Amino acid sequence: MKSKSKRSAWELWTKSNIGRFSDPFEVKKTNRASRERRALGSEIVYPCSLKTEVVDQDSVHRGSTGGIIITGDNFITVKLPYGISANDIWRATIDENGKQRNSLSVGAKKFKKKVFDTYAPIFKALKWEALNQQCEVRLMVQPPLRIKNYSAKTYPRFDIDNYPKLLIDSLKGMDLMFKDDNIFVSEKIEFAEPVQDGCVWLSCIFIEQTNWLEKKVDFECTP
Questions:
Q1: pLDDT in tens, 64-83
Q2: 48 or 100: which carries more pLDDT confidence?
Q3: Whole-angstrom distance, CA of residue 49 vs CA of residue 60
Q4: pTM of the predicted model, to two decimals?
Q5: Which CATH number is 46-210's, of 3.40.50.1000, 3.90.25.10, 3.40.50.11540, 3.30.1330.70?
Q6: What is the largest CA-CA distance in the chain?
Q7: Under a CB-based contact definition with an 8 Å cutoff, are residues 58 and 71 in contact?
Q8: CB neighbour class for 139 (10 Å; exposed up to 12, middle 13-18, buried from 19)
């Protein structure tokens, strides 16, 4: 039945040019419940070898795919590629009704696929179950190293709000770090010393369940 369906789709495309095959990286409009499905669609997770060492009571896992995962009592951290500019993440497209909508660019899809191919095998080797509990997400950003001397104020980098969306989405899915990004109730982003090619350390910090609907606003700053 599946091959017949594909053949029908091909015949429809060749005759009318309106049929098409599904794109596993296409961004579809979905309800919140279905967003727990992996954003990359049905992808094969290939096995990888894993080397684990204990450093200061935390476990550092290095996969043959090149990924690094650090796990501790109350957190999990992964090392991600530096990312791409917010201006390059989205592209404007016209749907079948003639309305404009934004979809992921080719560069953003390639970024997500790279993260998936790197980390899905490691999570599988760890027998990891995608997180489904409240967490704080933290991003430690290390911009690409530059030869020229800069001050902290003038050093080339993306705006701080440029980083979270694509990086967080790239780790969302049943085969990845967490089921859905609605588990995050707090976010923190910091910059650190530049490194070759740049990278971002993304951490999920496990916190106690909290009902933020009842949280009062307090503007008093504690030093």
A1: 999 999 999 999 999 999 98
A2: 48
A3: 14
A4: 0.75
A5: 3.30.1330.70
A6: 70
A7: yes
A8: buried
